[in-house]
Request: fold
Amino acid sequence: MVFIEPVIKNKIKLARVEKGLTQEELAELVGVTRQTIGLIEAGKYNPTVKLCLLLGKSLSKSLDDIFWLEEEN
Reply:
C-alpha cells in the first residue's frame, strides 16, 4: 500500500481580493508579515490552526471555504 500525502490548498488570495484587502492589510489583521501571507497564498507555507482561524474570521469565510486537502499524483 502506497501512502500519498495530501497537500493543503487554499483560496486565501481570492477571498482577500473579494474583501478588497492587500496582503499587507490582511497581514496586519492577523498579526503576521506580508511575506507570510504571500507564502500561504503560494502554497509554500502551511499556517497554524490559530492562523487559519484568524484568516477565516478576517476574511468572513469558513475554513471549508478557504482550505482543503488535495492528493498529489
About this structure: The longest strand covers residues 6-10. The mean pLDDT is 94. Helices lie at 12-18, 23-30, 34-41, 49-59, 63-66.
